[in-house]
Structure formats: C-alpha cells, structure tokens
Amino acid sequence: MGFRKKNKSPPVLSHEFVIQNHADMVSCLAMIILLGLMFEVTAKFAIMFITVQYNVTQVLGELRKTDDKSEPVNLYQYGPKDVATVFFYLLIAVILHALIQEYILDKINRRLHLSKTKHSKFNESGQLAAFYLFSFIWGCSILTSEDFATNPTFLWEGYPHAHMVFQVKFFYICQIAYWLHALPELYFQKVRKEDIPRQLYYICLYVVHITGAYVLNLHRLGLVLLVPHYLVELLFHASRLFYFSDENKQKGFTLWALLFVIARLLTLTLSVLTFGFGLPRTENHGFSLADGNFNVLTVRMTCLAAICLTQAWMMWKFINFQLKKWREHSQNQASKKKTVSPKSKPSKRETAKGGAANGVVKSEEKTSPRARKAKAS
User: Where is the signal peptide (predicted)?
Assistant: First the structure.
C-alpha cells in the first residue's frame, strides 16, 4: 500500500509561487488602485489609471434644422498619461486571462485528454479566440456608428485625426493593454521554449502596428484593417479548437485559407490607397508634434513599407503552412496505400502445390516414376 504524496506549497516569492498565484497578486494591485478613488488625496492619481484622459470639448459647425445652436461633442486626444491607463487595463487583462483559463479551458482540457503539445496550442487558441471575438464585435459596432467603412476617403480626409471619440480611444487602449499583457503570460503560462519565438513575433507585431496607428493619428485606417484581420484569426483559432476536439473537423481551415488571402489583399489595397494617393493629396502637409501631423513622405513610405513587409511575411508563413499540410496529407495517403497493398501474383511452385493440394491434377502434368513402373508390370 503506497503513501499519498502531500502537495507542498512552494516557497513564498519563488517562481512556482508567482506562477500559481499571479492572478491573485495582480487582482490585489488592481484593488489598491480602485481603493485610491475613496480618498481625496489619492483620487486624482487613481483616476489617471482608470478613466480615459485628455478630454477635449469641441463645438460642431453643423447647424440643426430646428435649432440654430451648435452641439458640443466630447472628444479625446492621446498623451503620456495613457501609459498609466494602459497599465491598469493590462492588469485587468491578466485577471480575465486567468479566469478564462481556470473556469473554461482547463475544464475542457480534462475531458479531451490532450497531449502536452496539443494542450499548449489549445490554451493559446482558446484565449485568442475569445479576444478576437470580443474585439471583432466591438470593432464592428464602432465602424457602424462612426461610418468609417462606408466612405474610403474618410480614412484620410481631414488628416491629422488628432481627436477621437471615447469608444475609439478606449478600444485602442484595451488593444495595446491586451497585447502587452501577453508578454508576461508567456512566463505565467509556462509556454514551451519552442513556441516562445513564434508567439513573440506576432505579439510584437501587434504592439508595434496598433501603437503606431494610435500615435500617428491613423486610428481610422488601423480600425478598418483590424476588424477583417480579427475575423480571419477568429476563424482560424475556432477551427483549431474544433480540430483538437475531433480531427475529422477540418472544413473550417479551407474557409480560413480563402479569407486569409482576401484579407491580405484588402490590407494592401487600403494601405496603398491611403499612403500613396489619399494623404499626399490632403491640404495639411508637414511634420508637427504639437498638431499631431505626420503627413510627410518619409513617414508615409515607412508606414507603407512596414505594412507591406508584414503582409509578405504573413503570406510566406501561410504558404509554408499549406505546403506542410499538403506533405503530411500525401504521406498519410502513401502509408495507407502500403498497408492495403494488392495481392501478389503466385509463383510456379505455389501454383503446382496449390493444384495438388486442391486435388485437381492437370492432364498436361507428367506422371511419377513409381507410376510408370506399375504400368510396365
């Protein structure tokens, strides 16, 4: 009769302790920031972390038909205090990540009994699918309310777009916070060393592109490009989740491959249209940090080159992925053909033995020597 091993708690502040309790530690830090709102001395600092900063009230020039008064609108700019807001919502993202992992993904993993490799990929796809779904719905609601997608000229008309509505600014704050939170999650989730470079690549690409669109006042173009991209990525990770549950469910990957190519072409088309034709024809040219104007040739060509290189890299990875799948499929087909090989032709000896064994002797066959002697006598 064996002894039961008692689960000893790891030493305080050790690596294992931090990994097991990181969500509780982060939630305590977030609660401390929220408690700062209760005291007048710390309230002004706590608000900087929680609420969106740099509120600007403008008066629209358009007049109503029934009233001659103009309508004041609350808009927002970006500034250094946004770093504090991004930090707070980074903590919220860590907490939500832990909740999804513990109460949804871990329970599904126990039922599926996946291997270590598939277990890691299942967790990654589960987290990203939830984020892509939420971001896609949120982005679509902004596009419909702000009419960003109805008129392509709206992407560059009136540049610099230094002012944003609340939903647009909060969307970018949450996007940057989420992708920054993915960096410490590589440590908290004990991601395998083989998967770390691949995840670092796309995390850094998201952070650079989203932050660049936010800082350069290209949030309209960035939002229009993010929504279809998130739809394609949502379809891929949802298909991978279904594949891990049942390997026969692979139809989603075909639809994903088609939409992936369309999304890349759409991204390149809108980028060339904006940086190559739209922004050069606007009235405001020049470089001004105070006005948020970055409409110069160097910035435009740098942004366009970064987008084109990223799309080319994604297409290269996509082609390699498809070739790998095609090779695996061809190898599986070849192995099946070997296992079910056609019947080999029988040899002369086997036919002779088979004929004698079946009790059928052909007339053409010669008699034995003993039979000859018997006949002679």
Answer: none
